[in-house]
From TrEMBL:
<protein>
    <submittedName>
        <fullName>DsbA family protein</fullName>
    </submittedName>
</protein>
<feature type="domain" description="DSBA-like thioredoxin">
    <location>
        <begin position="18"/>
        <end position="177"/>
    </location>
</feature>
<dbReference type="InterPro" id="IPR036249">
    <property type="entry name" value="Thioredoxin-like_sf"/>
</dbReference>
<dbReference type="InterPro" id="IPR001853">
    <property type="entry name" value="DSBA-like_thioredoxin_dom"/>
</dbReference>
<dbReference type="Pfam" id="PF01323">
    <property type="entry name" value="DSBA"/>
</dbReference>
Length: 187
């Protein structure tokens, strides 16, 4: 949803985007956790109805997840893909696997499968995940998130001083970008 939204906004605004790895629930066990256990009393159906409404304009079909995956390895694999020039391809595949197919992105074999589909070397990815070479990038992004007070994704940081949190409708993002541009011109 975020990528499709940004791509649409790029048709109207000069945007240079950089997608950063953000682990929202770093305490999630490696095997994941049932959403009902992690968030007792939360209304999963209402949340997914909202996500489906938000994703529809971008052709995104959200499945109904039951498990919150541990995303650390998936984010590390994303950094591997970025380093090898395949971030966009990998990002689309991992997003679809998790949010549409509701697969467990904490499973290394799934990450390897998706990386191969994106044109990446499976053995190199396995080695990178085993040695944790991308963990410092995740920690750096977490520090940056704390700096901006970010607690959710997607979060759009604009000109290093404005933060828009959550999946926003296209019209709201357009209005925010116009307002930011006007404020910056007035300075």
């Amino acid at each position: 949803m975020g990528k499709g939204l940004v791509d649409e906004l790029k048709k109207e605004f000069e945007i240079e985007d950089e997608w950063l790895p953000m682990e929202i629930h770093p305490g999630t066990p490696q095997e994941g956790v049932l959403l009902e256990e992690k968030f007792p009393g939360f209304d999963r159906e209402a949340m997914y109805a909202n996500l489906r409404r938000s994703g529809a304009p971008y052709g995104i079909d959200f499945g109904t997840m039951k498990v919150l995956s541990n995303s650390r390895k998936a984010l590390e694999a994303g950094e591997f893909a970025r380093e090898h020039g395949k971030f966009d391809e990998y990002h689309e595949l991992i997003f679809h696997a998790y949010f549409t197919e509701t697969r467990d992105i904490g499973e290394v074999e799934l990450l390897v499968e998706l990386a191969q589909k994106a044109g990446l070397d499976a053995d190199e990815l396995r080695a990178a995940l085993e040695d944790g070479r991308y963990l410092p990038r995740l920690e750096s992004t977490l520090d940056l998130a704390h700096h901006y007070g970010i607690t959710g994704t997607p979060t759009f940081v604009i000109n290093n001083k404005y933060a828009l949190v959550g999946a926003q409708p296209l019209d709201r993002m357009r209005a925010a970008l116009r307002q930011i541009a006007a404020e910056e011109q007035a300075e």
